[in-house]
């Protein structure tokens, strides 16, 4: 039996376009107003409702509220014009599954419908993103929801909390899973080459550009691109990324030939992006375009109930990696570590467990203090780092750009450390 789709759209030509595009694969009903929706909604069990935001006798937002109060399972997609994107984003927060911007290409429409109605068990999400805390349960549900849509996603969480894993799970469970998963960590790239690394470069664009080269975006076509540490990118280049988000097109460095790319965008931040906007490191308009769906991963110390199940999961993985067996004292060992801070989050817990498996005389007391192992070395590390920054600044006569290059950190990171350590000339 074919699944049933309801189109709620007052524009007749666009309504017919959607119907003609989908009629071979689905049973289609179409209405052009809120009153007609009310008449037909209770007659059938719908798999998908395609809902325009603006209707002649009411608002699509009110229709969405009505749908969600009566049916939590039906997929709902909002149709929007460019100027209505803020309202469409609000609809996502109110229970819509996706929004599609008009006009929409025939092939893209069919692909989006197929994706949102795709049957999946999400077994790998349950098996790989483990945890019993409220936050872990919410993150798993967020992954499932994002896997069925193409909306832009922001993932926030402290270092080592699992942001990359969440990105990978979204990609693997989406209809883009057979295409490339491309991670771009801007903090690790040469600042002067970020634009060419991202957009590609045309032969002869600058000295050393002996051949044309595709950038990260081109390589991600059809798949997923993860933007990490966007705050490390110059604001001018952020403007070009913003344009790409709006048009799905860009020009390689030194080229007048436009490239079009269909990539799903996931942005990853270790700090709340709103704070980065206030500091002047991230464009507000770029954040607005990226921030359609937000996934927030809490620090491990705020979800300690996850530690036992995480420890069992990680030790199982480490046993295979190291060809070792779980030690007999493991359960009592886990009870002892529940009070540790694990400032490095899941990654620190994994390293901690690896040391426990490898070291026969592992001494938990070394870690049994606020901050864990990191707290033992943090004070000394900060002292050495401050001295090194100060020495380098003096050596280059306080030229902060030169100092950043010598220290092999970004200019912005240097400015933050100067402020953090209260370094003065």
Automatic annotation (TrEMBL):
What GO annotations for molecular function exist for this entry? ATP binding; sequence-specific DNA binding
Any GO BP: phosphorelay signal transduction system
Q: Which UniProt keywords apply?
A: ATP-binding, Nucleotide-binding, Phosphoprotein, Transcription, Transcription regulation
Q: Which domain of life is it from?
A: Bacteria
Keyword check for ATP-binding: yes
Ranges for domain Sigma-54 factor interaction: 129-358
Database matches in InterPro entries? AAA_lid_NorR, CheY-like_superfamily, Homeodomain-like_sf, HTH_Fis, P-loop_NTPase, Sig_transdc_resp-reg_receiver, Sigma_54_int
Q: Which SUPFAM superfamilies match?
A: CheY-like, Homeodomain-like, P-loop containing nucleoside triphosphate hydrolases
Q: Boundaries of each Response regulatory domain copy? A: 4-117
The family database entries (Pfam families) matched by this protein are listed as: AAA_lid_14, HTH_8, Response_reg, Sigma54_activat
4-aspartylphosphate modification sites are 52
Q: Keyword NADP, does the record have it? A: no
Name of the molecule in the record: Sigma-54-dependent Fis family transcriptional regulator
